[in-house]
Write a structure and sequence with these properties.
This protein folds into 2 domains: 7-133, 3-Layer(aba) Sandwich (Rossmann fold); 169-405, no CATH class. Helices cover 39% and strands 17% of the residues. The chain has helices spanning 7-13, 30-37, 50-58, 61-68, 89-100, 115-120, 169-175, 179-182, 186-207, 214-226, 234-241, 245-257, 286-292, 299-303, 306-325, 367-375; strands at 19-23, 43-46, 77-82, 105-111, 129-133, 261-264, 280-283, 328-333, 339-346, 349-355, 382-386, 392-395, 398-402. Helix 4 runs parallel beside helix 5, helix 7 (169-175) packs across helix 13 (286-292) and helix 11 (234-241) packs across helix 12 (245-257). The radius of gyration is 22 Å and the shape is globular. The relative contact order is 0.11.
Length: 406
Amino acid sequence: MFQRYIEAGLKRSLLKPYVHILFGARQTGKSSLVRHLVPTPSLAYDFSNPAERTRLLADPGAFVRECEALKKKPGTHFVLVDEAQNVPSVFDAVQHLYDREKTRWRFVMLGSSARKLRLTGANLLPGRALLHRLMPLVLEERPAAPGAECLSPVVLPPVGGNLFPPAGLIERLSYGELPGIVTLPEEDRAGMLQSYATIYLEEEIRREGLVKDWGAFVNFLRLAAAESGGELNYASISRQVGLSLPTVKSHYQLLEDMFIGIRVPGWSGSPRKSLVSNPKFLIFDTGVRHAAAGLRPGPETVMANPGPVFEQWVGIELWKRLQYLGGTLHHVRSKDGREVDYLAETNGKLFPIEVKWTDRPSRSDARHVAAFLADNASAREGFVICRCTRPQLLCPGVTALPWQNL
């Protein structure tokens, strides 16, 4: 079992007498992690199994009766519910049981989509549940090389334990950071990612009737993935795929609800008022992005135009860490064309970050970051993430950082 960043914290949390909800996209390792921490649950349900799902949908009271059949004991009965969003009524059943006896059962609910829960107004157990998130792998879980040190301002505590095997940059850009993918032989990764982008999405979306026109959604998804990393332009996407503006907005929201889309809002907190506030949109994993765009994941796809893929990978890495740490990720673009790829806000401080494919960064690569520092007193340090071998001071306050030290 490879060590995950949230493992130690989740293990401690599971000792507390609350309901625990763990959200994350498919293949991020939720089930494996919980099964590792709770190897012998008293009851386990998997609502991705059609038979199990149908049984509980046909008889919602069965869940309560089966939990009540567990004999009382000095300890706690762990009850695991995987893909809980597929049977929203289970959240009401859990509340009913929890409110009666808070320590008899310890419910652990896993979900890969918040869409159906949000649309049905499902009970997410306010005041009773602790919410956890599991992301694809971060550099601390899958280092660039043994002993690679994090020198960026968005730093996670060391993970320790058995880490995933180190990987180079091209491999990461090609196949992404999903645990279920990176542990496969390399020759199987592209095919598995393509299956992820078709079978999984079809299963999740078509089964729940969340999209009326599946063919139009496939066209939308391909274009959204191809445009991943750019600023959202709903009107342009609407024209290109022949869907109404509200439908396009709904489709983007669907990707976010399924945890496979990331919205990076434009920053508007500058003393300068001439800022463009359109958000960027990223597919949550570069490997999934390639497959969803109809491309075959692999080095050939990356090297055809590596810069934008590298920029996306950096943004995804920063976003994952900020989700764990608590913080926000923005981008900055002024109407006169000055851009900063990402702006990380953590612990009340701002850190402008540019991404360059170069292995020889220069002062000109730092000019927009330096300008942002000059305009904003709350930002005192900025970075250019690139492929240089060692950190370099490009100008006062701006450091070029090798990607492996991000």
